[in-house]
Amino acid sequence: MLRSIAIVGAGPAGLYLAYLLKRRWPALDVTVHEQNAADATFGFGVVFSGRALEFLAADDPETHDAIIPHMESWDDITVIHRGETIRIDGVSFSAIGRLHLLTLLQARARDAGARLVFGSRLESLDALAGADLVVGADGVNSLVREAAPVDFGARIDHLGNRFVWYGVEKPFDTLTQTFVETEFGAFNAHHYRYTPTMSTFIVEADPIAWERAGFAGMDEAATRALCGEIFADVLEGAPLVGNKSHWRNFPKLACARWHGGRHVLLGDALHTAHYSIGSGTRLAVEDAIALDRALGATPDDLGVALAAYEAARRPVVDKLVAAANRSAEWYEDFASHMAQDPWRFARSYITRAGRVDEERLNRMAPRFMRDYRRNCH
């Protein structure tokens, strides 16, 4: 029987797993180690699809009901291309501030009896030698994964496009994709509100546009100012807000194996899904649910439990990550797609991940399809 579990990383995956484990086994020693402070976070808002919230409601209605009142929700996606605004109906999303979500999950984990240790920077896993199970929920640069790289067979590839994550004190009606052609080349912004007054604003650039704009030689303030100029029309005078906002290339992480010995991974320590499909937090939460279930089914045989976790969860993750990778491929070439007229471009966008065929598009977005046919035939 498990006596102690050490979780490395207090993001959504680690905190939610701590809560689930303590709910299942109140006497179990569950400790979460996080190198940052409790109120530190990077990025702004995170999104959940309507489908993801349905799964959470079915699996854990109490946590679902605790989060929902703090979320902003909408049922359309907006695409702006060549100055034309096109709304695509039937695509439900909700958003919440990342720090707000973490605060809610911290409270649930603590109330359940988990011990949360912030400012706990581990140089190695030696300090966790007494734990029956060590869970790596510590993100892309996972210490748990890198401490035994052979066990996990990790591979990381970086995409070519650059992106930088901002906030802005301006609410947008829906999750919006704004594409602009500039003197430097093509840029895209992913933006959505996560409070009644604040929105996430992610700027993406293809490598050619990024180089021509001179971002390589700019500091953070100059970068933020130029991004604000590029998207001045949609920002309408609202300044971008930074928070450790630096250009990055998205890391595509996959692991051949999910566990080794008494170590197991979940969330971004295990896999990444391109931000364009809004499934990163969903994957983290659902990984935690699957691991808790597997441990609960066979608490006396850790090897069997961890194998069951991977066997049950991997097909679902592989499917979502494959869709995310197809979406990422579309974005890697978004400058070429922008040669299309706005309506064909919007259709290309909404079908980019290969999960929406003609029949499903007609069913889920009848208003968009009606207008699409009127404008394209």
Automatic annotation (TrEMBL):
<keyword id="KW-0560">Oxidoreductase</keyword>
<dbReference type="InterPro" id="IPR002938">
    <property type="entry name" value="FAD-bd"/>
</dbReference>
<dbReference type="Pfam" id="PF01494">
    <property type="entry name" value="FAD_binding_3"/>
</dbReference>
<feature type="domain" description="FAD-binding">
    <location>
        <begin position="131"/>
        <end position="323"/>
    </location>
</feature>
<keyword id="KW-0520">NAD</keyword>
<dbReference type="Pfam" id="PF13450">
    <property type="entry name" value="NAD_binding_8"/>
</dbReference>
<dbReference type="GO" id="GO:0071949">
    <property type="term" value="F:FAD binding"/>
</dbReference>
<protein>
    <submittedName>
        <fullName>Putative tryptophan hydroxylase VioD</fullName>
        <ecNumber>1.-.-.-</ecNumber>
    </submittedName>
</protein>
<dbReference type="InterPro" id="IPR036188">
    <property type="entry name" value="FAD/NAD-bd_sf"/>
</dbReference>
<dbReference type="InterPro" id="IPR050631">
    <property type="entry name" value="PheA/TfdB_FAD_monoxygenase"/>
</dbReference>
<dbReference type="GO" id="GO:0016491">
    <property type="term" value="F:oxidoreductase activity"/>
</dbReference>
